[in-house]
Every structure is written in C-alpha cells, then in structure tokens.
Amino acid sequence: MTRGGPDERWIDGDHDVAAINDCVVDTVQSPRTRNVWLVALAAAALGLGALALAVFGVFWWYVGIWGVRTPVYWGIAITNFVWWVGIAHAGTLISAILLLANQTWRRSINRFAEAMTLFAIACAGMFPLLHLGRPEFFYWLLPYPNTYGYWPQFLSPLVWDFFAVATYGMVSLVFWYVGLVPDLATMRDRSTGLRARVYGVFALGWRGSARHWERHQFAYLLLAGLATTLVVSVHTVVSFDFAVAQLPGWHATVFPPYFVAGAIFSGFALVLTLLIPVRVWLGLRDLITDRHLDQCAKLMLTAGLVVAYGYAAELYFGWYSGDPHERELLASHLHGRSAPLFWTVIGLNVALPQSLWWRAARRSTAWLFVLSIGVNLGMWLERWLIVITSLEHGLLPTTGGHYWPTFWDWLTLAGTFGFFAFFMLLFIRFVPVIAMSELRELVGDRRPEGA
Amino acid sequence: MSALQGMLAEFAGPGDVLAATWAARRAGYVALEVFSPYPIEGMAEALAFRTRLARVTLVAGLLGGAAIFLFQGWVHAIEWHLDIGGRRSFAAPAFIVPTFEITILCAALATVFAMFVRNGLPRLHHPLFAVPAFGRASQDRFFLFIGADDPRFSAPTVRAFLVSHAPLEVHDVPR
C-alpha cells in the first residue's frame, strides 16, 4: 500500500527502511569524515573572515573602494548577485516543480539542493545591499512608518528586486524546514543527551501521526505550488533591473525567460559540481546514483538550450531593431572589443554542453564535474558581459568607459564562496543531507530479513 | 478514570497497520491514531480524515495581495504623490511585482503556520514519548493507538483486539 514499486529503481542495492535510516543518519557527525570536515571548515572560515573584512571595507569607505566609476556604475558586485540568485533556482526547481511532476528521483537530492538554494540566496542578497552606496540604510527599502514621511518608490525595479529576493529567501527557508521536521524527529529519536534535546526542539515534537502527515504533505504540496511560481518569477524580476533601462544590451524583451533559463542552467551545474564529490565523501552513492546525475545533466542540457535561444534572440533583435547603438554593441560582441569574452561564453555555455546529448557523457562523472565547473564559469562571464560590457559600451563612443574589479571586488566574491562553503559544511555535518522520510516511502515494501 | 492514556500496537509494515486501522474502525473504535515514519497512502481515508488547509492558503494569499496592492496605490496616489512627467500616480501595472511577491509570501507563511497550529505543534512533551519503543515511529515501525477516551475503551478488550491483528507488541501508554 505504499507508493514504492517501480520507484525503487532510484535506490541501488537492497536497502530497506532501516538501512536507509542508518545510511543517512551515519553521515551526520560521522567520525570517518570528521578530520576532513574540520580542515574544510577551517578553510571556509578563512573565506568567511575575508567576507567580514570586505563588508567592513564597504561600510567604512563605501563603494568607492570597488572599481565602479562613470559610466560603469555596476561592477562585479551585480554580476555576483545575478550569478548567486541564479544558482539558487535549481534547488527550488528540484524541490517544487519536480515534486508537482511526481519525479521520485528528486527525493535523493532535494534536501541538499534546497540547502544550496538558501545559502546562495544569502550570498546573493548581500551584493545589492552593499551596493546601495549607504548600506547601513538598507532597511529604507522596507515600507515602514517613519518620521520622515517617506515610503519606498514602488515603481523602481530595485524595490521589486528587494521584494522578490526577500520573498524567495523566506519561502525557501520554510519549505526546507517543513520538509526537514520529520527527519529532525528521527535524529532526536536516535540521539541521546544534549544532541537529542537540540534536535528535539527543532523537531517541534513531531510524532508522525497520520493526521499530522496528511496536513504536512498537503502543506508541502501547496508550498511546492507557490514555490513553483517563484522559480520563474525571481529571475524575471532580476532581469527587470536591466530590461527596464534603455541601455543597449539591456533593453530586450527576451530577458525574463532568458534569465530564468540561465538561472536553472547554472543552478544545475552547481548541484552537479557539489554532489559529485559529496556523495562519495559521505558514502551515499547507493542513494545518489549515476542515474540521478544523468537526470540533472538532462535538465541542465534543456535549460542550456533555452539559454542558447536567448543568445540567438538577443543577437537577432539587436540586428533587426536597426538601432545603431544596438548594432554597435553586436559588432563589438561578434568581432570587436568584447569578442573574446563573448565567444568564451558561447563556447562554455552553448558548445560544450551539447556533449550531454550522448549518454556516455552524462554517465561520465569526471566529464560532468569538469563541464559543470565550465558552465558555472561561463554563466558568471555571461553576467559580466551583460552587466559590465553593456555599461562600458554605453550609447556613444565618447561616453564609453573601462572597468576592472579592484582587490575589494575580488575579496567580496571570494568571501561569499567562503560563506557558502562554511554554511554548506555545517549543514552537511549536523542535518541529514537526504530527506529520509521521503526515501523510506520508496522502499516501504521491502521487508527486513526475518521480519 | 483509567490510569492509561491508551494502548499502542506496534507493527512492522504499513500494510499491517492499515489493515488493523480499518478493522478498528469497523469494530466501532473512534479515538484512533496512527503513527508512521512516512505517510501511508490510504490512511487518511481509513481514519475518515480530510484537511482543509488549502482554504487558509487561498484566503491569506488574497488578503496579502490585496493589502499590498492598495497600500502601494495609497502611497503613490494619496500619501506621497510624486508628479513624474504628469504620469498617472495610481500606476497599477507597476504595482504587480510587489503584489505578486506578497501574495506568495502570505500564502506560504500562513499555510505553514496553520499546518503547525492545526497539528498542535510545537509540543515537545507528549505521553507517547514515555513509551520507549515509540522512538521507532520516526524510523521503521508503525503504530496504531486506541485512546482511553474512546467510549468503547476497556483495557482487556482493547488489548485482545490489538493482539488479534498480530502486532509485534502491544504497549500500555501511561497517562
């Protein structure tokens, strides 16, 4: 009477319910991974320290320490923002859209991908706030009654962005936590002493009552429906930051779908980059199989094709518009100043991913790992091309400019990598990385020996 | 008044506990509850239970969306009107992004809040946690609970009833 049956094929070996529990719970605070984990955490803490320094620099000397100057008002801070928000999207797609589409393979990777989403949103959210010029007044974006009689300008894409990213962050957090509660109860029941108490508090006293499960599953489904709209809307709103402006290279109607596809593309790339080593490190290859990576690769290829369409549409409309400024930018991309960057982006994001049409490429863990890093680099460079190259070009040759990131720009980017790694490592160490309660359902019919 | 909160039968599989639950319903027991490490398909039906959580989602989403939409209109058309090239101050299309975001946010938070409140959570202490074997309800065992507040409850008959469905064990749940 369970939904098991044919879906068992997503789990290798003959794990029954108890074996899955053991497999996943053993990854939490496992003595085997302890030393490597401590070293990795120390390295990530250095990055976290770098971020603290970079943020301090911006608060003390303001954005002048970044390489931004007229006409390039937005430097790699905005590139990083768009890139990190994009990374987040794969987690939401895996947890929400694949749930609605009844794709059972998502159950092995959704918890991990959602954690990635949360920390990526946190990294992303820092950049526009630090870029405000006076970051200490970031809360002026919130509509709250104040003695100045001031309200946010709701017609501004910056305010839209704030609403979109804040909603995305909060909904992702509750979605992740609701799915986590039954697993925290398992951790509570398998721990003793202080650990049991801590897990117990976060498990909220979950008892696994059938009525509770019914409401829980229904709420989870409703959240998935709501989060699905966020998968397509958040990067749409991010693209408005550009598309609403008149600048050549920004003012294009293809931007919203093109940004969303780019987000999912780079998000799946990071899922692959991280899952490939982590599943080996934690000994979870029976639960996160090569077939799971194959599925991710297929979705990455699909999103990549939409991105390729976006590039084509952008070029075509730039040419077809007849606008001399758009055409100049186009010529610069194809065979001018920005050509090396443009063709690198095409190579990494369009040409190389075509290898995924072949099953052998999708089943080669080494190739997927290399390719996923290439795609992430390519997507970061693509955002450089959109944000910085367009601003450098401008409308007239006389108003053009040049931008190169300073030490502080790079330090902030490196710092967010440290921040992301630090919290991912904490997550891996203290929280079950796989949604046990969801996997149990897949093997519910497998009886333990002698039962 | 019985010294028991109820009685708990422990099963190894979801099919066993589902069959026992249907039998308990047919035998006329009403204070039934089932505990399992993952949701069992068909169990809500066996317990004649339906959730109406979707109403909360709908109402919260509509209210949140309407509130932020009207609020933006009030800010830009009444409270803090800015004349930008004579453009219409109640710029409804431009209000859509925050309206959409707040709709989703209110719907999601209200759904989760309502789910926990209706489930009576958080509740860190519960009589069931006094049964040592109950720790496996979150792992690999399935439990049927018949409460002492059931009008047909009497310890010997309930125990006999539960034992007749071949559980691994029957536990008393102290009050």
TrEMBL record, chain A:
Annotated localization: Cell membrane
Chain segments annotated as transmembrane: 36-61, 81-100, 112-134, 154-178, 218-238, 258-278, 299-320, 340-358, 365-387, 407-431
Keyword annotations of the record: Cell membrane, Membrane, Transmembrane, Transmembrane helix
Membrane topology: Multi-pass membrane protein
Similarity annotation: Belongs to the NrfD family.
Annotated protein name in UniProt: Polysulfide reductase NrfD
Native species: Nannocystis punicea
Gene: nrfD
Automatic annotation (TrEMBL), chain B:
Organism domain of life: Bacteria
Cited InterPro entries: ActD
Keywords: Membrane, Transmembrane, Transmembrane helix
Parts of the chain that traverse the membrane: 53-75, 95-117
Protein name stated in the entry: DUF3341 domain-containing protein
Organism: Nannocystis punicea
